[in-house]
Amino acid sequence: MTYPTGNGYLKPGVLPHMWCAGCGIGTMLGAMLRSFEELGWSKTDTVVVTGIGCTGKLDDYLVTNALHTTHGRALAYATGIKAFNPRLHVVVVMGDGDGVTIGGNHFIHAARRNIDLTALVLNNLNYGMTGGQASATSPATSITSTTAYGNPEREFDICALAETAGANFVARANTWHGWELQQSITQALTRKGFSLVEVMSPCPTQFGRRNDMRQTQAMLHSLRDRSMPVDRFRALPPSERADRFPVGTLVDRDEPGFVERYAQVQQRAAARLEARPA
């Protein structure tokens, strides 16, 4: 069977993809590419940076500029790309293990710097590729390959972490609501400064089967049922928020991004040099 390659950002002949049935990475990839097309982004002016893990395979499918980096370091490489060539559109695609567990320190400082790039973090609540180990987002009490009797650790709220560290734009979506996912990605791609979209995604192969969601659709339905538009979520009393999470735009600020602030530093340096006596 011949599969269409979509809107021109995909390499020919790469479909069907390699991810497990029910995984949300393909849905996120499609939403990202439709956002590129909607914004009219050139393949030569776009750089997609990935790390290691299931999401790290995503760059293999693209004809944009791409950089496949080491585990947890995708944001560090992407920061260098954007600082060196600010005209490029830089998008970083990571999993929860890669982005905020192994790479947690880089995540914090990318948001603190408000570096002008978009981070898409696919949160499937575990290390999906390497055997289903607990990550920093695995829910407390959940079963993983390294927490066979329940997870004693508390989980990160990725969006709250980005907001506190200083990100300009923070949104959360899930792979059940595909249209809303694309809208959030498009918004993030157009904002200056550090933009984050956390994409809640099923991992039926590893996480789902260990947590009473053995059927592929069960974990997807769980994400659908647990998500709630942010305004409705914030109106709930804390006692009713258990096991729910808000989706939509959580933070939308207009603080100067790193590129803007660095340009100001360069201007001050140039002015000082010019003012020096010959």
UniProtKB/TrEMBL annotation:
Tell me what organism the protein belongs to: Ramlibacter lithotrophicus
Q: Name one GO biological process term.
A: small molecule metabolic process
Give the InterPro entries listed for this entry.
Answer: 2-oxoacid:Fd_oxidoreductase, THDP-binding, TPP_enzyme_TPP-bd
Instruction: Look up keyword Oxidoreductase and say if it applies.
Output: yes
List the lineage, top down: Bacteria, Pseudomonadati, Pseudomonadota, Betaproteobacteria, Burkholderiales
What's a Gene Ontology MF term here?
Answer: oxidoreductase activity, acting on the aldehyde or oxo group of donors, iron-sulfur protein as acceptor
Lineage top rank: taxon: Bacteria
Q: Which UniProt keywords apply?
A: Oxidoreductase
Q: Which Pfam family is one of those matched by this entry?
A: TPP_enzyme_C
Q: Where is the Thiamine pyrophosphate enzyme TPP-binding domain?
A: 61-199
What name is this protein filed under?
Answer: 2-oxoacid:ferredoxin oxidoreductase subunit beta
